[in-house]
Amino acid sequence: MVPGSPRPPLTGELFDIVVIGGGVNGVAIARECARAEKRVLLVEQNDFASGTTSRATRIIHGGLRYLEHGELGLVRESLRERERLLSESANLVRPLNFLLAMPKGSRRSALEVRFGLWLYRFFARRKPVNDPAPDLHRLEQLLDRGQQWSIFSYEDAQCEYPERLIAEWLHAAGALNVTVRNHTEAIQIDKKDGAVSGVRVRDRLTGDESIVECDWVINAAGPWADAITERAGIVTDEPLIGGVRGSHIVLPNFAGAPEAAVYTEAVDGRPMFILPWADQTLVGTTEERDEHNPDYVTPSQAEIDYLLRSFQRLFPSTGFTASDIRCAFAGIRPLPYITEQSPNSITRRHFIIDHKDDGLRGMISIVGGKLTTAKSLAREVARAIGIEAQEPAGFTVLDVPSHPYNDTSLRQLLHDMVVFARISLKSVRAVESIYGPFAITVFNTIQQDDTFRRPLCAHTSHVVGEAVYSARREHALTLGDILLRRVPVALGPCWSEDCTRTAAERIGHALHWTPDQIAHQMHNFQEEYDRFLIKPARTAGAR
User: Fold this and answer.
1) For residue 440, what is the enclosing H or E element?
2) Which residue of 237, 281, 284, 303 is 20 to 30 Å from 99, comparing CA positions?
């Protein structure tokens, strides 16, 4: 735990609502309920955004593929929420060209694709921001010349670091007096006369237990939702969650790669994405049923080989083999438990389950949900417990600038921050890109001490002061909280054990950790890093 004052005890506290689960849905729900002046406690057993949220494909989209399944309402909702995120979180959610590459013989005809894209653009009601022509040319040069390809373009958005988006939402929740506890597990739901009466929680870093009283419990634990209902003594005919594992591989960038995302078919005809991410290439995803403990989700070697073969089919000229895979990761989608359907066809809509029909009033569970629609889900949940949550005002067609540094006033601001914080322009831009409206506060932290200006490792422009800010203001308690989710430099291509050592020593010095605490944090970080970003066997894989 980060040294300093311990977190205040919770025993005896009275809350209107306890939200269990600190992923994108739980954080959005906590913030929405607090806007109605409800007293809210948000608990997360690990760190915020460390589960499904951090293991997704990191795109903000309306779900072009959902059109195939006739889920027009979900597409419209997703596109509407995408536009709001582009407007509200422009530093983290940015327009991105997508190139749809269809091989000859695809199960989808060109006519179907053109109609789907027309409908998608009609629902979106936005003017494209980026010119797709350069990326189209690059892609045409790279595609397997032995096949005929049909290429279409459209626009969606990307959030490279949803962990940072959750940190911003947490900041807003804190401003609304939400009590926030990461690394805190809900171990028991108390009840009285058939209704929720409280929750027993355990701090997983200290072992301390507390009992809080509440009127409502919102189970937003994602893949762990059934474990929470079990702790509440709820018995259902079948599980709420039918876990579906989605795996990704990370490859190096390659010469001539388009800056756009590529949406194509895998070797078995399933949809898949290849997109730029964290100065690397992200390839995913799979869909495999997984009913095991979500704590230990990991990509199978078969999935890794499948993704690599699919990439090689599209871009054989790269010459990439299994030895080029930098890492692989997997997460569990908390989809509804449906046994008779293939994972690919299970709806991506969310469901709100009121457990009064199971004999427990005051408890609601969330099934499904995704990053794009988390805020609209939060409004639905608020209404389900009697809060008048209004829909935001309508959006207009946006003209989002393609590059934030074209604006004269912003260039002047960046120059002023170089002088104020006494760091390089590259570091100023790095801070501004992930903190957006909170960057000024981060710069104020950086300028407080010369040691805060040091880079976190030799390969990054991000500095120690950002780690200090995350520990002081963003609920970061461990080295993993900092390097994987608040200042996510450890997700980049440079990261090594030397980087971990350098960052731990510099952060530890800034936060006044003892040598033993630094060693402990390094050990725990490396264990978490290795569980999350799997290094595949170099001798395996497709050729």
Assistant:
1) helix 439-446
2) 303
Share in percent of the chain as helix, strand, coil (round to 5): 40, 20, 35
The Cα angle at residue 177 between residues 432 and 354, in degrees rounded to 5: 105
Q: Any residues with CB less than 8 A from the CB of 118 and at least 6 apart, and which?
A: none
- CA–CA separation, 47 vs 146, rounded Å? 47
Residue 399 has pLDDT above 50, yes or no: no
Q: What residues make up the domain containing 517?
A: 405-532
CA atoms within 13 A of residue 451's CA, in its CB half-sphere? 11
* Block residue for tokens 């990053």: 371
| Positive or negative torsion for Cα 372, 183, 333, 242 | negative
Rounded to an integer, the average pLDDT of 49-61 is 94
Can you tell me whether residue 325 is helix, strand or coil? coil
Measured between its terminal Cα atoms, the distance across the chain in Å is: 45
CATH no. for residue 184? 3.50.50.60
The strand pairing partners of 155, in sequence order, are 97
311 occurs within a structural domain = yes
pTM confidence score: 0.91
**Residue-wise pLDDT tens digits, 179-216:** 999 999 999 999 999 999 999 999 999 999 999 999 99
* DSSP collapsed to 3 states, 349-393: CCEEEEHHHHCCECEEEEECCCCCCHHHHHHHHHHHCCCCCCCCC
Average pLDDT, the chain: 89
Please give the Cα distance from 184 to 40 (Å, whole number): 15
Q: Is beta strand 363-367 parallel, antiparallel or unpaired with respect to 209-219?
A: parallel
For residue 4, being part of any structural domain is answered with: no
Domain count, the chain: 3
Is pLDDT at 92 greater than 70 in this prediction? yes
At residue 356, φ and ψ (nearest 5 deg) are -65, -30
